[in-house]
Amino acid sequence: MRVNDELILFFTVLKWLFISSLIGCLTGFAASGFISFIHYIIDQSNQYKNVFYLLPLSFFLANLLSQFVLKKHLGTDTLIAAINKNYGKLESSFIPTKVINVVLILATGGSAGKESPCAQIGAGIGSMCANLFRVDNIDRRKMVLCGFCAGFACVFGAPIAGAIFGIEVLAVGVIFYDVLLPAFVASITAYQVSSALGVTFFYYPLKFVPAFGQGFFIQLLTGGIFFGLCAYVLIRAIQQSAAFTNALPLWRPWKGLLGGLLLVGLTILFSRDYLGLGLNLLEGSIKGLHVNWYTFLLKALFTIITLSISRSGSVITPVLFIGATAGSYFADLVGADQSTFAAIGFVSILAGTTNTPIASSILAIELFGATIAPYAAVSCVISFVMSGHRSLYTSQVLSISKSNALPTELGKEISEMSNPGKIPDIRFPDWLKKLLPASRNDKT
Protein backbone atom coordinates (compact mmCIF):
# COMPACT_ATOMS: atom_id res chain seq x y z
CA MET A 1 0.00 0.00 0.00
CA ARG A 2 1.35 3.39 -1.00
CA VAL A 3 1.61 5.80 1.94
CA ASN A 4 0.36 9.30 1.25
CA ASP A 5 3.15 11.92 1.14
CA GLU A 6 1.19 14.25 3.41
CA LEU A 7 0.92 11.52 6.04
CA ILE A 8 4.70 11.01 6.00
CA LEU A 9 5.27 14.73 6.39
CA PHE A 10 2.71 14.88 9.21
CA PHE A 11 4.50 12.19 11.21
CA THR A 12 7.84 13.84 10.43
CA VAL A 13 6.56 17.06 11.96
CA LEU A 14 5.25 15.18 15.02
CA LYS A 15 8.60 13.42 15.39
CA TRP A 16 10.57 16.68 15.40
CA LEU A 17 8.07 18.45 17.64
CA PHE A 18 8.62 15.74 20.25
CA ILE A 19 12.41 15.51 19.88
CA SER A 20 13.07 19.26 19.74
CA SER A 21 10.72 19.94 22.68
CA LEU A 22 12.56 17.33 24.74
CA ILE A 23 15.96 18.79 23.86
CA GLY A 24 14.65 22.31 24.54
CA CYS A 25 13.32 21.32 27.98
CA LEU A 26 16.54 19.59 29.00
CA THR A 27 18.70 22.42 27.68
CA GLY A 28 16.49 25.00 29.38
CA PHE A 29 16.92 23.27 32.75
CA ALA A 30 20.66 22.70 32.38
CA ALA A 31 21.49 26.13 30.92
CA SER A 32 19.31 27.89 33.53
CA GLY A 33 21.17 26.06 36.25
CA PHE A 34 24.50 27.16 34.83
CA ILE A 35 23.36 30.78 34.30
CA SER A 36 21.92 31.01 37.83
CA PHE A 37 25.07 29.47 39.26
CA ILE A 38 27.46 31.74 37.39
CA HIS A 39 25.45 34.84 38.33
CA TYR A 40 25.46 33.73 41.97
CA ILE A 41 29.23 33.22 41.87
CA ILE A 42 29.75 36.61 40.21
CA ASP A 43 27.47 38.35 42.73
CA GLN A 44 29.37 36.78 45.59
CA SER A 45 32.77 37.63 44.17
CA ASN A 46 31.68 41.23 43.48
CA GLN A 47 31.33 41.72 47.23
CA TYR A 48 35.11 41.61 47.39
CA LYS A 49 36.60 44.62 45.59
CA ASN A 50 40.03 43.05 45.28
CA VAL A 51 38.94 39.65 43.94
CA PHE A 52 40.61 40.48 40.61
CA TYR A 53 43.97 39.89 42.31
CA LEU A 54 43.12 36.18 41.92
CA LEU A 55 43.13 36.45 38.13
CA PRO A 56 46.69 35.06 37.75
CA LEU A 57 45.70 32.01 39.81
CA SER A 58 42.44 31.41 37.92
CA PHE A 59 44.17 31.77 34.54
CA PHE A 60 46.90 29.37 35.72
CA LEU A 61 44.34 26.75 36.84
CA ALA A 62 42.19 27.16 33.71
CA ASN A 63 45.19 26.54 31.47
CA LEU A 64 46.27 23.62 33.64
CA LEU A 65 42.86 21.98 33.21
CA SER A 66 42.91 22.68 29.47
CA GLN A 67 46.34 21.11 29.07
CA PHE A 68 45.85 17.93 31.08
CA VAL A 69 42.12 17.24 30.88
CA LEU A 70 41.42 18.80 27.49
CA LYS A 71 44.19 17.87 25.11
CA LYS A 72 43.18 20.73 22.84
CA HIS A 73 41.15 23.90 22.99
CA LEU A 74 37.46 23.01 22.75
CA GLY A 75 34.91 25.78 22.36
CA THR A 76 32.25 27.09 20.01
CA ASP A 77 34.66 26.81 17.07
CA THR A 78 35.09 23.10 17.78
CA LEU A 79 31.32 22.65 17.97
CA ILE A 80 30.85 24.38 14.62
CA ALA A 81 33.51 22.15 13.05
CA ALA A 82 31.91 19.03 14.57
CA ILE A 83 28.47 19.95 13.21
CA ASN A 84 29.82 20.85 9.77
CA LYS A 85 32.21 17.95 9.33
CA ASN A 86 31.26 15.13 11.68
CA TYR A 87 27.45 15.22 11.91
CA GLY A 88 27.67 16.71 15.39
CA LYS A 89 29.56 13.82 16.98
CA LEU A 90 31.08 15.21 20.18
CA GLU A 91 33.44 14.09 22.88
CA SER A 92 31.39 13.98 26.09
CA SER A 93 34.29 14.75 28.45
CA PHE A 94 34.88 18.39 27.52
CA ILE A 95 31.61 19.94 28.71
CA PRO A 96 32.13 19.77 32.52
CA THR A 97 35.70 20.98 32.26
CA LYS A 98 34.79 23.95 30.09
CA VAL A 99 32.12 24.95 32.61
CA ILE A 100 34.67 24.81 35.43
CA ASN A 101 37.11 26.92 33.42
CA VAL A 102 34.49 29.59 32.66
CA VAL A 103 33.47 29.76 36.33
CA LEU A 104 37.11 30.26 37.32
CA ILE A 105 37.59 33.06 34.79
CA LEU A 106 34.34 34.95 35.37
CA ALA A 107 34.40 34.62 39.17
CA THR A 108 37.70 36.47 39.35
CA GLY A 109 36.82 39.10 36.75
CA GLY A 110 38.06 37.80 33.41
CA SER A 111 36.50 39.66 30.48
CA ALA A 112 34.56 36.85 28.84
CA GLY A 113 31.00 35.66 28.36
CA LYS A 114 28.79 32.72 29.26
CA GLU A 115 27.33 31.85 25.84
CA SER A 116 29.86 29.24 24.80
CA PRO A 117 29.25 26.94 27.82
CA CYS A 118 25.47 27.20 27.32
CA ALA A 119 25.81 26.32 23.64
CA GLN A 120 28.13 23.44 24.57
CA ILE A 121 25.69 22.18 27.20
CA GLY A 122 22.85 22.28 24.68
CA ALA A 123 24.89 20.57 21.96
CA GLY A 124 25.97 17.91 24.45
CA ILE A 125 22.35 17.24 25.43
CA GLY A 126 21.41 16.97 21.75
CA SER A 127 24.24 14.49 21.22
CA MET A 128 23.17 12.38 24.23
CA CYS A 129 19.58 12.30 22.96
CA ALA A 130 20.87 11.20 19.55
CA ASN A 131 22.75 8.34 21.23
CA LEU A 132 19.65 7.42 23.24
CA PHE A 133 17.35 7.25 20.21
CA ARG A 134 20.02 5.62 17.98
CA VAL A 135 19.35 7.97 15.08
CA ASP A 136 21.28 8.20 11.82
CA ASN A 137 23.90 10.85 11.13
CA ILE A 138 21.50 13.30 9.46
CA ASP A 139 19.12 13.31 12.44
CA ARG A 140 22.06 13.43 14.87
CA ARG A 141 23.25 16.62 13.23
CA LYS A 142 19.79 18.16 13.54
CA MET A 143 19.50 17.17 17.21
CA VAL A 144 22.90 18.60 18.11
CA LEU A 145 21.96 21.79 16.26
CA CYS A 146 18.69 21.97 18.25
CA GLY A 147 20.61 21.95 21.51
CA PHE A 148 23.20 24.36 20.13
CA CYS A 149 20.49 26.88 19.19
CA ALA A 150 18.57 26.36 22.44
CA GLY A 151 21.70 27.19 24.44
CA PHE A 152 22.06 30.51 22.63
CA ALA A 153 18.36 31.28 23.14
CA CYS A 154 18.73 30.84 26.91
CA VAL A 155 21.54 33.38 27.03
CA PHE A 156 20.22 35.96 24.56
CA GLY A 157 16.70 35.88 25.99
CA ALA A 158 15.64 35.98 22.33
CA PRO A 159 14.46 32.57 21.10
CA ILE A 160 14.08 33.38 17.40
CA ALA A 161 17.42 35.20 17.18
CA GLY A 162 19.06 32.38 19.18
CA ALA A 163 17.72 29.75 16.78
CA ILE A 164 18.76 31.68 13.66
CA PHE A 165 22.17 32.49 15.16
CA GLY A 166 22.92 28.82 15.82
CA ILE A 167 22.09 27.95 12.20
CA GLU A 168 23.53 31.03 10.49
CA VAL A 169 26.89 30.84 12.30
CA LEU A 170 27.73 27.48 10.68
CA ALA A 171 28.36 28.82 7.19
CA VAL A 172 28.70 32.31 5.74
CA GLY A 173 25.81 32.93 3.37
CA VAL A 174 23.83 29.72 3.96
CA ILE A 175 20.89 28.89 6.24
CA PHE A 176 19.85 25.25 6.59
CA TYR A 177 16.08 25.37 6.19
CA ASP A 178 15.58 21.72 7.10
CA VAL A 179 16.60 22.56 10.69
CA LEU A 180 14.43 25.66 11.11
CA LEU A 181 11.39 23.93 12.64
CA PRO A 182 13.24 21.85 15.27
CA ALA A 183 15.60 24.75 16.03
CA PHE A 184 12.70 27.16 16.58
CA VAL A 185 10.80 24.70 18.77
CA ALA A 186 13.87 23.80 20.84
CA SER A 187 14.87 27.45 21.30
CA ILE A 188 11.38 28.65 22.26
CA THR A 189 10.96 25.73 24.67
CA ALA A 190 14.35 26.36 26.29
CA TYR A 191 13.57 30.07 26.61
CA GLN A 192 10.19 29.38 28.23
CA VAL A 193 11.74 26.90 30.67
CA SER A 194 14.47 29.38 31.60
CA SER A 195 11.90 32.14 32.15
CA ALA A 196 9.75 29.84 34.30
CA LEU A 197 12.80 28.99 36.40
CA GLY A 198 13.41 32.67 37.16
CA VAL A 199 16.18 33.55 34.71
CA THR A 200 15.74 37.20 33.76
CA PHE A 201 16.72 38.82 30.48
CA PHE A 202 17.46 42.35 29.33
CA TYR A 203 14.79 44.08 27.25
CA TYR A 204 14.68 47.76 26.45
CA PRO A 205 12.13 48.71 23.77
CA LEU A 206 13.26 52.04 22.35
CA LYS A 207 10.92 54.95 21.78
CA PHE A 208 12.45 55.51 18.40
CA VAL A 209 11.29 57.86 15.64
CA PRO A 210 13.70 58.19 12.67
CA ALA A 211 14.51 61.82 11.91
CA PHE A 212 15.37 61.74 8.20
CA GLY A 213 15.34 65.51 7.96
CA GLN A 214 18.33 65.70 10.27
CA GLY A 215 20.46 63.36 8.17
CA PHE A 216 19.70 60.28 10.26
CA PHE A 217 20.06 57.85 7.37
CA ILE A 218 23.48 59.23 6.44
CA GLN A 219 24.51 58.85 10.09
CA LEU A 220 23.19 55.28 9.98
CA LEU A 221 25.18 54.35 6.87
CA THR A 222 28.32 55.95 8.29
CA GLY A 223 27.73 54.11 11.55
CA GLY A 224 27.45 50.78 9.74
CA ILE A 225 30.85 51.38 8.12
CA PHE A 226 32.33 52.38 11.49
CA PHE A 227 30.94 49.27 13.21
CA GLY A 228 32.19 47.07 10.38
CA LEU A 229 35.70 48.46 10.73
CA CYS A 230 35.51 47.93 14.50
CA ALA A 231 34.47 44.31 13.89
CA TYR A 232 37.33 43.78 11.43
CA VAL A 233 39.94 45.23 13.81
CA LEU A 234 38.58 43.23 16.75
CA ILE A 235 38.77 39.96 14.80
CA ARG A 236 42.32 40.66 13.68
CA ALA A 237 43.42 41.75 17.16
CA ILE A 238 42.05 38.63 18.88
CA GLN A 239 43.57 36.30 16.28
CA GLN A 240 46.96 38.02 16.28
CA SER A 241 47.04 38.05 20.07
CA ALA A 242 46.20 34.34 20.21
CA ALA A 243 48.93 33.58 17.66
CA PHE A 244 51.46 35.63 19.63
CA THR A 245 50.51 33.88 22.87
CA ASN A 246 50.78 30.43 21.28
CA ALA A 247 54.23 31.30 19.93
CA LEU A 248 55.65 32.21 23.34
CA PRO A 249 58.13 29.52 24.43
CA LEU A 250 56.53 29.03 27.85
CA TRP A 251 54.52 26.30 29.54
CA ARG A 252 50.85 27.13 28.94
CA PRO A 253 49.90 27.61 32.64
CA TRP A 254 52.80 30.07 33.05
CA LYS A 255 51.34 32.07 30.18
CA GLY A 256 48.07 32.15 32.11
CA LEU A 257 49.86 33.44 35.18
CA LEU A 258 51.55 36.23 33.21
CA GLY A 259 48.29 37.16 31.47
CA GLY A 260 46.50 37.37 34.80
CA LEU A 261 49.21 39.65 36.18
CA LEU A 262 48.86 41.87 33.11
CA LEU A 263 45.10 42.19 33.66
CA VAL A 264 45.63 42.99 37.34
CA GLY A 265 47.99 45.81 36.37
CA LEU A 266 45.54 47.19 33.79
CA THR A 267 42.69 47.06 36.31
CA ILE A 268 44.72 49.02 38.86
CA LEU A 269 45.68 51.52 36.16
CA PHE A 270 42.18 52.04 34.75
CA SER A 271 39.10 50.58 36.43
CA ARG A 272 37.20 47.42 37.38
CA ASP A 273 34.48 48.43 34.87
CA TYR A 274 36.11 46.39 32.13
CA LEU A 275 36.22 43.13 34.07
CA GLY A 276 33.67 40.34 33.97
CA LEU A 277 30.44 40.49 31.99
CA GLY A 278 30.12 44.27 32.39
CA LEU A 279 26.32 44.11 32.20
CA ASN A 280 25.71 47.29 34.21
CA LEU A 281 27.77 49.48 31.88
CA LEU A 282 26.36 47.72 28.81
CA GLU A 283 22.75 48.25 29.89
CA GLY A 284 23.53 51.83 30.94
CA SER A 285 24.82 52.71 27.47
CA ILE A 286 21.68 51.24 25.88
CA LYS A 287 19.57 53.40 28.19
CA GLY A 288 21.44 56.50 27.04
CA LEU A 289 23.76 57.00 30.00
CA HIS A 290 27.07 58.67 29.18
CA VAL A 291 30.16 56.47 28.90
CA ASN A 292 33.73 57.54 28.25
CA TRP A 293 34.74 57.55 24.59
CA TYR A 294 37.54 55.05 25.18
CA THR A 295 35.36 52.52 27.03
CA PHE A 296 34.95 50.20 24.02
CA LEU A 297 38.70 50.25 23.36
CA LEU A 298 39.59 49.26 26.92
CA LYS A 299 36.93 46.54 26.98
CA ALA A 300 38.37 45.20 23.75
CA LEU A 301 41.86 45.17 25.28
CA PHE A 302 40.71 43.33 28.42
CA THR A 303 38.79 40.83 26.27
CA ILE A 304 41.69 40.20 23.89
CA ILE A 305 44.01 39.41 26.82
CA THR A 306 41.44 37.20 28.57
CA LEU A 307 40.53 35.10 25.54
CA SER A 308 44.04 34.70 24.13
CA ILE A 309 45.52 33.74 27.51
CA SER A 310 42.77 31.80 29.31
CA ARG A 311 41.33 30.00 26.26
CA SER A 312 38.01 29.86 28.13
CA GLY A 313 34.76 31.75 28.11
CA SER A 314 32.81 33.20 25.26
CA VAL A 315 33.37 36.28 23.15
CA ILE A 316 29.71 37.19 22.51
CA THR A 317 28.96 39.19 25.69
CA PRO A 318 32.17 41.25 25.36
CA VAL A 319 31.33 41.87 21.68
CA LEU A 320 27.88 43.15 22.68
CA PHE A 321 29.49 45.39 25.32
CA ILE A 322 31.99 46.73 22.77
CA GLY A 323 29.23 47.28 20.24
CA ALA A 324 26.97 49.20 22.63
CA THR A 325 29.74 51.46 23.95
CA ALA A 326 31.19 52.00 20.45
CA GLY A 327 27.70 53.02 19.36
CA SER A 328 27.48 55.46 22.24
CA TYR A 329 30.84 56.97 21.21
CA PHE A 330 29.73 57.23 17.58
CA ALA A 331 26.52 59.01 18.64
CA ASP A 332 28.60 61.57 20.55
CA LEU A 333 30.82 61.99 17.51
CA VAL A 334 27.99 62.78 15.07
CA GLY A 335 25.57 64.41 17.51
CA ALA A 336 22.96 61.62 17.37
CA ASP A 337 20.86 59.94 20.04
CA GLN A 338 23.13 57.80 22.25
CA SER A 339 20.54 55.16 23.10
CA THR A 340 19.63 54.59 19.45
CA PHE A 341 23.17 54.11 18.22
CA ALA A 342 24.18 52.08 21.28
CA ALA A 343 21.43 49.62 20.36
CA ILE A 344 22.46 49.63 16.69
CA GLY A 345 26.12 49.14 17.58
CA PHE A 346 25.12 46.34 19.98
CA VAL A 347 23.84 44.17 17.11
CA SER A 348 26.03 45.51 14.28
CA ILE A 349 29.42 44.50 15.69
CA LEU A 350 27.94 41.10 16.55
CA ALA A 351 26.90 40.75 12.88
CA GLY A 352 30.35 41.78 11.67
CA THR A 353 32.43 39.60 13.97
CA THR A 354 30.33 36.42 13.59
CA ASN A 355 28.94 36.82 10.04
CA THR A 356 25.34 36.62 11.29
CA PRO A 357 23.48 39.67 9.92
CA ILE A 358 20.04 38.03 9.89
CA ALA A 359 20.21 36.74 13.48
CA SER A 360 21.60 40.08 14.66
CA SER A 361 18.79 41.98 12.92
CA ILE A 362 16.19 39.75 14.57
CA LEU A 363 17.94 40.23 17.91
CA ALA A 364 17.37 43.98 17.52
CA ILE A 365 13.63 43.33 17.11
CA GLU A 366 13.40 41.03 20.13
CA LEU A 367 15.42 43.26 22.47
CA PHE A 368 14.73 46.82 21.32
CA GLY A 369 11.40 46.74 19.47
CA ALA A 370 10.23 46.71 15.88
CA THR A 371 10.61 50.43 15.17
CA ILE A 372 14.41 50.37 15.15
CA ALA A 373 14.66 47.01 13.37
CA PRO A 374 14.89 48.16 9.70
CA TYR A 375 17.67 50.61 10.51
CA ALA A 376 19.55 48.14 12.69
CA ALA A 377 19.28 45.62 9.85
CA VAL A 378 20.87 48.04 7.37
CA SER A 379 23.76 48.68 9.77
CA CYS A 380 24.16 44.93 10.45
CA VAL A 381 24.45 44.13 6.75
CA ILE A 382 26.99 46.92 6.17
CA SER A 383 29.04 45.71 9.14
CA PHE A 384 28.82 42.13 7.86
CA VAL A 385 30.21 43.17 4.46
CA MET A 386 32.87 45.49 5.89
CA SER A 387 34.38 42.82 8.15
CA GLY A 388 35.50 40.87 5.08
CA HIS A 389 36.11 37.13 4.81
CA ARG A 390 37.02 36.83 8.47
CA SER A 391 35.27 35.72 11.63
CA LEU A 392 35.82 35.13 15.31
CA TYR A 393 34.71 31.57 14.48
CA THR A 394 37.25 30.33 11.97
CA SER A 395 35.45 26.99 11.55
CA GLN A 396 32.71 28.75 9.60
CA VAL A 397 32.47 27.56 6.01
CA LEU A 398 32.66 30.36 3.44
CA SER A 399 29.76 29.73 1.04
CA ILE A 400 29.55 33.14 -0.64
CA SER A 401 31.91 35.95 -1.50
CA LYS A 402 31.14 39.32 0.03
CA SER A 403 32.55 41.03 -3.05
CA ASN A 404 33.21 39.78 -6.59
CA ALA A 405 36.33 41.96 -6.58
CA LEU A 406 38.00 39.74 -3.98
CA PRO A 407 39.38 36.29 -4.86
CA THR A 408 37.67 33.76 -2.66
CA GLU A 409 37.97 30.03 -1.98
CA LEU A 410 34.36 28.97 -1.48
CA GLY A 411 33.43 25.80 0.38
CA LYS A 412 36.40 25.99 2.75
CA GLU A 413 36.61 26.91 6.40
CA ILE A 414 37.79 30.45 7.01
CA SER A 415 40.83 29.02 8.80
CA GLU A 416 41.79 27.08 5.65
CA MET A 417 41.80 30.07 3.32
CA SER A 418 45.26 30.61 1.86
CA ASN A 419 47.17 33.58 3.29
CA PRO A 420 44.26 34.98 5.35
CA GLY A 421 46.47 37.77 6.66
CA LYS A 422 47.73 38.84 3.24
CA ILE A 423 46.19 41.82 1.48
CA PRO A 424 44.48 40.19 -1.53
CA ASP A 425 44.77 41.25 -5.15
CA ILE A 426 41.67 43.12 -6.26
CA ARG A 427 39.73 41.97 -9.32
CA PHE A 428 38.64 45.08 -11.18
CA PRO A 429 35.55 44.90 -13.42
CA ASP A 430 36.11 45.27 -17.18
CA TRP A 431 34.71 48.79 -17.41
CA LEU A 432 37.06 49.98 -14.67
CA LYS A 433 40.09 48.27 -16.20
CA LYS A 434 39.71 50.49 -19.25
CA LEU A 435 40.11 53.57 -17.07
CA LEU A 436 43.22 52.30 -15.29
CA PRO A 437 46.82 52.68 -16.54
CA ALA A 438 48.05 49.87 -18.78
CA SER A 439 50.62 48.73 -16.22
CA ARG A 440 47.88 48.24 -13.66
CA ASN A 441 45.73 46.39 -16.18
CA ASP A 442 48.54 43.92 -16.76
CA LYS A 443 48.53 42.94 -13.11
CA THR A 444 44.81 42.33 -12.90
UniProtKB/TrEMBL annotation:
<dbReference type="InterPro" id="IPR014743">
    <property type="entry name" value="Cl-channel_core"/>
</dbReference>
<feature type="transmembrane region" description="Helical">
    <location>
        <begin position="183"/>
        <end position="204"/>
    </location>
</feature>
<dbReference type="Pfam" id="PF00654">
    <property type="entry name" value="Voltage_CLC"/>
</dbReference>
<dbReference type="InterPro" id="IPR001807">
    <property type="entry name" value="ClC"/>
</dbReference>
<feature type="transmembrane region" description="Helical">
    <location>
        <begin position="341"/>
        <end position="359"/>
    </location>
</feature>
<feature type="transmembrane region" description="Helical">
    <location>
        <begin position="365"/>
        <end position="386"/>
    </location>
</feature>
<feature type="transmembrane region" description="Helical">
    <location>
        <begin position="291"/>
        <end position="309"/>
    </location>
</feature>
<dbReference type="GO" id="GO:0016020">
    <property type="term" value="C:membrane"/>
</dbReference>
<feature type="transmembrane region" description="Helical">
    <location>
        <begin position="315"/>
        <end position="334"/>
    </location>
</feature>
<feature type="transmembrane region" description="Helical">
    <location>
        <begin position="7"/>
        <end position="31"/>
    </location>
</feature>
<keyword id="KW-0812">Transmembrane</keyword>
<feature type="transmembrane region" description="Helical">
    <location>
        <begin position="216"/>
        <end position="238"/>
    </location>
</feature>
<dbReference type="InterPro" id="IPR050368">
    <property type="entry name" value="ClC-type_chloride_channel"/>
</dbReference>
<feature type="transmembrane region" description="Helical">
    <location>
        <begin position="250"/>
        <end position="270"/>
    </location>
</feature>
<keyword id="KW-0472">Membrane</keyword>
<keyword id="KW-1133">Transmembrane helix</keyword>
<feature type="transmembrane region" description="Helical">
    <location>
        <begin position="51"/>
        <end position="70"/>
    </location>
</feature>
<dbReference type="GO" id="GO:0015108">
    <property type="term" value="F:chloride transmembrane transporter activity"/>
</dbReference>
<protein>
    <submittedName>
        <fullName>Cl-channel voltage-gated family protein</fullName>
    </submittedName>
</protein>
<feature type="transmembrane region" description="Helical">
    <location>
        <begin position="144"/>
        <end position="177"/>
    </location>
</feature>
